[in-house]
Design a protein that fits this description.
By secondary structure, this protein is of the alpha/beta class. The protein has 7 helices and 4 strands; from the N terminus they run βαβαβαβαααα.
């Protein structure tokens, strides 16, 4: 019987329902595989903060009782790239397995891939943004100021940013799985089927195909030569 230590996190105290939703997902999964929920740790802390006493406590419990660390969603771990790399080294050194319910094939090795992809993507986005701004300035285009935007324009801008962030996170998670499947010798078409079974969508909200899988894998190779 597999023993689990569950880790739950929300950013603010107003998100208590988020904790309950995470608990329900974790408890339902453990019950479905006849596992044992050995312990639970919950904390309210920003994902940007690397000093996470709750996560540290959960990891120590896993080390002490030989348990698997289980989380409902991968983004509950951290948004910090450096933190993810440190966490990968920590759990690998102590042979701790990690289970993320929103990525069924996720494991300790995938954590490193995910962190690498997230860092490469962040650097690529920063570079593209700077180049785009420089090009607009060269063309004599006056860049707008948030102070000059109407409330409706600000709302649309915020929604656009949120949507791009969601798409980017989904692509990073999908790419981590693609890399893992490719290492197992699985073809693009079968990988696309697996992503669709897990309800992963393309940036346009469509189902994955062998072409979309190939493009994500090619992009990974370009960012990580």
């Amino acid at each position: 019987m597999t023993k689990f230590i569950a880790y739950y996190r929300t950013s603010t105290q107003k998100q208590n329902l988020g904790i309950e939703a995470q608990k329900t997902s974790v408890q339902n999964y453990i019950k479905s595989i006849s596992g044992e929920l050995f312990g639970e740790v919950a904390e309210q802390e920003s994902g940007k903060n690397d000093k996470r006493e709750g996560l540290e406590k959960a990891i120590r419990l896993c080390e002490k009782h030989n348990c698997t660390l289980i989380i409902a969603k991968l983004d509950r771990l951290s948004r910090s790239i450096s933190f993810l790399f440190q966490l990968r080294d920590r759990v690998a050194k102590n042979n701790i397995e990690i289970k993320a319910l929103d990525m069924p094939s996720f494991n300790t090795m995938s954590l490193g891939i995910y962190a690498t992809m997230a860092q490469a993507e962040r650097e690529a986005i920063s570079s593209r943004t700077k180049l785009a701004l420089l090009e607009r300035k060269k063309q004599g285009i006056k860049l707008g100021s948030p102070k000059n935007l109407t409330p409706d324009a600000r709302r649309k801008g915020v929604e656009s940013i949120k949507q791009k962030a969601r798409n980017n996170k989904a692509n990073i998670q999908a790419t981590a799985l693609i890399i893992e499947y490719k290492e197992k010798g699985i073809g693009y078409e079968k990988i696309a089927n697996k992503l669709n079974e897990l309800n992963f969508k393309t940036t346009k909200g469509k189902m994955h195909s062998s072409t979309s899988v190939y493009r994500l894998y090619k992009r990974y190779l370009e960012l990580n030569p």
